[in-house]
Design brief:
By secondary structure, the protein is mainly beta. It contains two helices and eight strands. Mean pLDDT is 83; it is low at 1-24.
């Protein structure tokens, strides 16, 4: 479970880094889909991904014609022995979740980590610590 959270996303710094990158350096794509049926039933969805060296950002949105749906976003920055990620989901009814994670290599074979998650009812959980390399010397 921690691995999922860790791989999931990272903060505003990644969004700023992606936004500040010149178009020739940025790599990304987006897509949009609309499916409409009889009686006004249907949905629209969109997704966008942006990647630059050391940072990624993505967002998705799904909205039904009946007004249901939500958006999700994830960002991550990584490099030089560090990872920082965050993300979240917000539904049209205002309910939301969020998560953050970071890992930093200490240079001695150990790494410090921390992760937190906030659920739809506002409850938060967090974990942090240090792991050491225990392989052959």
């Amino acid at each position: 479970m921690f691995s999922r959270t860790l791989i999931a996303s990272a903060g505003l710094a990644a969004l700023l880094a992606v936004a500040a990158t010149a178009p020739a350096e940025a790599a990304g794509h987006s897509r949009s889909t609309s499916v409409q049926g009889s009686g006004g039933h249907g949905y629209t969805s969109s997704a966008a991904v942006s990647r630059v060296p050391g940072a990624t950002a993505s967002s998705r949105s799904v909205q039904t014609n009946a007004g249901y749906g939500g958006t999700s976003s994830r960002t991550a920055t990584y490099g030089n022995g560090a990872y920082q990620g965050s993300g979240g989901v917000t539904l049209n009814n205002g309910m939301s979740t969020s998560h953050d994670a970071s890992v930093q290599a200490n240079g001695d074979g150990s790494a410090a980590y921390s992760a937190s998650r906030t659920g739809v009812t506002g409850q938060s959980t967090s974990v942090s610590g240090t792991v050491s390399h225990t392989g052959p010397q």
